[in-house]
Write a structure and sequence with these properties.
two-stranded antiparallel sheet; 8 strands; alpha+beta; elongated
Length: about 260
Amino acid sequence: MLTALLVIAILVFLIVVHEMGHFIAAKIFGIQVQEFGVGYPPRAITFGRWGGTEYTLNWIPFGGFVRLFGDEGETEHGRGSFVDAPRWKQAVVLVAGVCMNVVAAWALFTGAYAIGILHVIDDPSAAGARLLVTDIVPGSPADAAGVRAGDEVLDLADAKSAHAMLTPQGILNFVSIRGGQDLTVTFVHAGATTTSQLTPAHAVIAEESGRPAIGVGVALVTTESLSFAGSARAASISTYNTFFIVAGGLGKIVGDAIRGA
């Protein structure tokens, strides 16, 4: 039940933010917004009318809408009509919905980084830095040792008590020259510290069969909060990356549909 309510709340938020983009652009260009509604009709509550726009709450809680004068119906002409606005203004009003979603994503990312969420860093001396396992190659030495994605690596040492630098590159360098040697890995799994033995081997990673590996992907991360400027910069990168991930996913869906897959 709680999950269903959360899904509805997220859906309403995303659509209302999207419609807010259309609303703001229309107001800027002098296009009359007759109604801004949260949810879909039938109408439950009318909050009032301001600036020529009626604000309503509706019974079907799966989004929201803006009703523009001249958006539907060839008879709605005149001042403030959407259909009479220049084509470029119509285009901006339409695209503004997606743009507002991008702005909302950036704002949410910024807030999350400012509060403190798990994010990748480069400096191992940064406050709260931890080395986390991001993925495991099935059947690899690390997999056999019980290491799992999400575990924190505390130490990796050889029989001569040499220790790897706890960075992605440090682990790579340490392992790549110790093929066939027994190593000791200490890691935190499900809140418990565990020590296991493993041996780097060749052909663990198919595309790098000539290099010894243990079969883990790792990333240096922290949950320390960032300054507003740092949060804004990190949020810009995350928004950019996420935008293209989503666009690529949608493109794949369309491509698969065309190919009948």
